[in-house]
Specification:
Layout: H1 2-16, H2 19-35, H3 37-42, H4 70-73, E1 84-92, E2 107-114, E3 125-126, E4 135-136, E5 156-162, H5 190-193
Antiparallel strand pairs: 1-2, 2-5, 3-4
Helix pairs in contact: 1-2
Length: 205
C-alpha cells in the first residue's frame, strides 16, 4: 500500500511540475511523510505546513521560542500577510549587523498577529517547513501598542523589521509606549538583507 501511495504521488506531481520542481516537492513531501505520516495523509495543508515545533529537535531554530520574519513566508515582503494585523512593537538598541537598519544601528521589531476570527494557513508550524527556521503562528502574545480597537490576544504570525519608530508609520496605528528587547538584535533572515528600500521617513529615533 505504501509503495502504491508513493508511486501515485510521484505520478501526480510529475505530471504537473518540471523535473526540478518535482524533485523539490518530492523531497518536501517525503520529509513531511516521515515526520508525521498520519497528519500528512489526512490534512489538506501543503507539506511545509506539517512540520511543527514539536516535530523538530530541541536545539532547532524552530524551537528557540521566537517567531519567524514575515518576509520568509510572505513572498519576500516585509509586511503583514493576509489574515494578520500589526499588534505591537519593541526596539533593538544595539544592532551591529550589516543588514537592514545597519546605518541607524537600531531596529524596530513589529509583531503581525493573527486577526481574530480568521484562520492562518497551516496553523502553528516552522516557517517553510524547515526546522532550521523560526516558528509561525505559535506564540500567543501581544504587546498591544498598535490597533487597540482590535480586542483580544492571538498568535504572533510573523515579525516585521523597520528602521523608524512604528508610531510614525500612519498605516500601523501604533502609539509610543516603549518596549525594548536586545536579545533579538542578532536575529537575521536572508530576505531582510535584500530589503534596500525602507518605509518613507526612516530614522533611528
Amino acid at each position: 500500500m505504501t509503495q502504491r501511495l508513493v508511486d501515485r504521488t510521484a505520478s501526480l506531481l510529475g505530471a504537473r511540475t518540471s523535473r526540478r520542481g518535482f524533485l523539490t516537492r518530492l523531497a518536501l513531501a517525503g520529509s513531511a511523510f516521515v515526520t508525521a505520516p498520519i497528519r500528512y495523509l489526512v490534512r489538506p495543508e501543503p507539506a511545509w505546513a506539517i512540520i511543527s515545533p514539536g516535530d523538530c529537535p530541541s536545539g532547532a531554530l524552530c524551537n528557540d521560542g521566537w517567531t519567524a520574519f514575515c518576509c520568509e513566508i510572505n513572498g519576500g515582503r516585509n509586511s503583514c500577510p493576509p489574515n494578520s494585523y500589526v499588534a505591537g512593537w519593541w526596539k533593538c538598541t544595539e544592532y551591529r549587523g550589516g543588514g537592514l537598519c545597519a546605518p541607524q544601528g537600531v531596529r524596530y521589531y513589529v509583531d503581525c498577529n493573527r486577526s481574530p476570527g480568521r484562520s492562518f494557513s497551516g496553523g502553528c508550524h516552522c516557517a517553510r517547513g524547515d526546522c532550521g527556521r523560526r516558528r509561525v503562528d505559535c506564540n500567543v502574545f501581544r504587546y498591544g501598542q498598535c490597533n487597540p480597537q482590535i480586542g483580544g490576544t492571538t498568535e504572533v504570525a510573523c515579525r516585521l523589521v523597520i528602521c523608524q519608530h512604528p508610531a510614525s508609520v500612519s498605516d500601523f496605528h501604533c502609539n509610543s509606549s516603549y518596549k525594548q528587547e536586545n536579545r533579538v538584535c542578532g536575529q537575521e533572515a536572508g530576505c531582510l538583507r535584500g530589503l534596500l528600500v525602507q518605509l518613507p521617513g526612516g530614522g533611528g529615533a
